[in-house]
Amino acid sequence: MTMLRNRREFIRDLGIGAAAAPFLSGLAFGSPAPARQRLVVMFSPNGTVPWNFWPDAEGPLDTLKEILTPLAPFKDRTLVLHGLNQRVKGDGDGHMRGIGCLLTGIELFPGNILGGSHTPAGWSMGLSIDQELANVLQSKPETRTRLGSLVLGVQVPERADTWTRMSYAGPNKPIAPLSDPYQVLRKYYGEAKDREALGSILDDVREDLAKARAKLGAEDRRLLEQHEAFVREMEEQLKAQAAAKSGPPAPELPAGVRDENDNMPRLSRMQIDLLVHGFQADFARIATLQYTASVGQARMKWVGVDERHHELSHKPDKDKEAQEQLTRINKWFCGELAYLCKKLADTPEPGGEGSMLDHTTIVWTNELGQGNSHTHNNIPYVTVGGGLGWKTGRSLKLKGQPHNRFLLSLAHGFGHRIETFGNKTLSAGGPIDLA
Fold this sequence. Notes:
The protein is an alpha/beta fold. It has helices at residues 3-14, 94-100, 129-138, 181-189, 206-215, 218-244, 264-280, 309-313, 320-345, 403-413; strands at residues 38-43, 59-60, 78-85, 148-154, 284-291, 360-365, 381-385, 394-402. The radius of gyration is 22 Å and the shape is globular. The two termini are 34 Å apart.
């Protein structure tokens, strides 16, 4: 009897309403939990500072450069991939092709979105690897989840254009990230109270959850209680956030800069907590987490930087102060990655062995290799975790391989043995052997 069938029968036999069903996702109902594989792609913009990012040599990660130091506790689970080049050409400026082709590996359609001095462009011609893998998992009953994938954001601009989207459901089908934690919680647990009068999702399902607890085994009961506690805590955070917004109106800001800029660290942690909860509850096994967008314009005052990120990224290498500030910015992003790693490492695999990080691979990447040159060579790629069985604790020099081959490696890691992904010419050579 499958776990899905067990859940359906359990809900039916107890007469539990649909609103309570999401709380029961991910429970084993007394059956052994099958092994789960998960993927997170985390994006931050505007390139990196190469001399403060890349390890000096190929081989064991004995020493981490300044930007990567937050990953020290996870050094043995980290893989740094130097020499992956995004070779997709065609329409659009460097930032547009950088993010629009990052996960699709294929050209942009002609369009009317003009960037820099390059030709205008439109959306990507193909679906992204996260959605490709979500579709594969959703096609099998044993790996199907309620939501399929999570497309989350932190301070992603509301405008829809090629600079702001990296996940695609298909050609010309960009997916807008959910950047509001309230919207994510509502996606998980359905239409609850409206934001302005936020009540408790738990109020509507209290009796049904009590029925379920009385019939569940000890491990499933513990997981259910964790789900309830998480929802309760997240609601309190959202209430506090809503109360803070009820003060004086925010000043007018330049186009593309969200008024929550200074709230970015708090929103980041809330989104990461929600992502991990979504995995723990088995709402999805594939996720993207996008910080701002290409040409990201955040002012990261919390790390002592007042200038906008994108403007700083254009400063020359000889501007030591600018490069030091960019190092701080990228180190902050790496710190958020480390927070995600710790959350997964501290969470036992539901119904299985080890931690959730043992079964999850996180990929941290960017649309550019370096901001002041807009290069697509040596795009930053760092992976953490054990979800795909890759050999970690090392740095690899890949000498200019097209990033399509890495996208194939992700697919093959999930047992999806496709021969090409995106631009077929750029897939030549097949997946990169990372085992």
